[in-house]
Specification:
The chain is of the alpha/beta class and about 325 residues long. It has helices spanning about 1-15, 15-25, 35-40, 45-55, 80-100, 105-135, 135-140, 150-160, 175-180, 195-205, 245-255, 275-280, 285-295, and strands at about 30, 60-65, 70-75, 165-170, 185-190, 210-215, 230-235, 255-265, 300, 305, 315-320. The N and C termini lie far apart (about 60 Å).
Amino acid sequence: MTQNLLIDPLLRALADPTRLRIMRLLAAMELAVGELAQVLGQSQPRVSRHVKILCDAGLAERRKEGSWVFLKIAPFAADGPSSRLSLRAASARLLAAAEDEDADFAAQCAEDRRRLAAIRAGREAASAQYFARHAEEWDQIRSLLSPDEPVEEALGRLLPASLGQLLDIGTGTGRMAQCFAPRAAHVTALDKSPDMLRVARTRLQDLPAGKVDLVQGDFAALPFSDAAFDTLLMHQVLHYAQAPEAVLAQAARVARPGACLAIVDLAAHAHEELRERHAHARLGFSDEQMAQWFAAAGFSADAPLALNGGQLTVKIWTGRRLPENAGTAPSNAKVSA
């Protein structure tokens, strides 16, 4: 009886050519509803109705990011009824086979992908324009720091060989998510700025479908369940936090026991112009501050690594999430700066 209740909406959802085209597009990448409307040549309200049917049937999932709504194909392996997961996987195989054997359907899918390629090109152009508008600002900040390559190489050595479920907090342009995706089972890239997430989406769009989720959210109130991640990364983001200890407490909440936390940021400095012109809430961090915050959040801290090479010293602080009964302070403990 349960199987019939699951299969009826699924079959109804697949009984429309437009929804079949949407499913084949989503097999390639996550798309905004407006982008789907552009590819399909239909109005956004009409496409939204198709999207609702697919989501209600459990074939797709919606996610809001600012004023945009993104759609992705529902996962085939996750918590939930095994019968529903089996039906999702079977539906995906059926649609792939249909494209192989139905010439008309294959031609329509090929045309949809051609339009999708144009959307990707548009994203790349928008990304270039964004950086062009902010080029002076980015270059000024980067000129103060160590080159990217040594920092990334050092971070790669300090992180585990297998990253499991990776959370990139404050992903920005998506550079860290791109670097470490090959070592992760899955990447969740979070940023508060929709503009930055659009830049990151362009950078990450060639990763396999389902490899990465881009999520809009605040690092002081992470929108994830407890103990959800094996590796957590904050790359040049903590200095924007008014209360860094609260950010680490949130990281501890979503970290599994034994999870690795890596923070790449600036050593304490006196460049006040970064606060005045670039919204830095903190002028770097001392090792003592980090050690206190790690301990208060329930992380064991490793020896920090300093990377010189610019006017400002970049440091990498790493640690492991301790079990709750390890005798450390609770993860929501506060430590004064």
